[in-house]
Design goal:
- The chain has about 325 residues and is mainly α.
- The chain has two domains: about 100 residues, Tyrosine recombinase, N-terminal domain (DNA polymerase, domain 1, Orthogonal Bundle); about 190 residues, Orthogonal Bundle (hpI Integrase, Chain A).
- It starts with 20 loop residues before the first helix and ends in an 8-residue tail after the last helix.
Amino acid sequence: MKERKVKPVISDVFTPVHMSLSTMNEYLAAFLVSLKDKSKETFGTYQRCLRDFTYFFTVDKNFAFTVKCVERYKHYLIHEKKMAEVSMSQYLTSLRRFCNYLVETGVLAKNPAKRVSGGRRPKKHTRSFISQAEMDMLLKALEGDEYEQLRDNAIVRFMIGCAVSELELTRMDIGDLKHDGKRWTVIVQGKGKTVKDVILPVPQSVVDAVHKYLALRSDATPDRPMFLSRSNRARNGYMNIRSMREFVHLRLINSGIKHGRDLRLTPFSLRHTAGVMIAELGATVEELMQRLRLEWRPTAMIYFQQAGQFGVTTREDLAALVQVPKE
């Protein structure tokens, strides 16, 4: 009988770093200042989450930036704060970023929060995809020449063709859609960003829908919002996220595809459906990650696992919803 070789345990030592509450608060304030280029929403999230960490640091009285210390904080979030997994993960992410700042400034040698996992990554998307038949129903419901129909058709086709979110659409100007001599592109400002810095290819079907919609706009100049607010408080300004979500949600209901479906079918389901369609049309993992602005490769792989369920390769008209010219 062969003797089993036991791999030696690699010691991953984190030297305790003790500091007073006032010193920790000074580092925390400097970290928040370093976030000046982040959006107001992102800054607010870090500030809120780290305020809770400051409270824990105070009552714990022995937090020394080791793995065990971070595990105690995680236990506190789950068992005392009664946080859901998603919220707990967000709070740990904020601490992880703060610890990373302390590493960069030489206060810590290593980041202990990297050794403590947050919430489990989903193995499937929490929102549903829509089927080929449901896509037909939705597009049929968007037909018409009235302003609202043309506007909502442009919104839905943007969500499918460019996999953009409601937030990105509400920040879009007419001039952000351009032709570079070879193809149509749009520049977007994503979540947590303060500038528009991501250029996306735009399918011709989206461009056609947008031009039909803009033909009814008397103010269709490059500096005007792509989608206008119709509310009394912000009339003719940028449409807000809530309004856009409601418009698309109503189209999903009125088309009939929400009937009998679970609550996971949302406007964001259009983005997920686009991901499956792009995967079915032969995109590489890298191409799909770029089109959907994904940073985590396993998330992109979920779309390839779902590939084949939509069947976009059997319908040229539906393939045109997401197809873009090669660079």
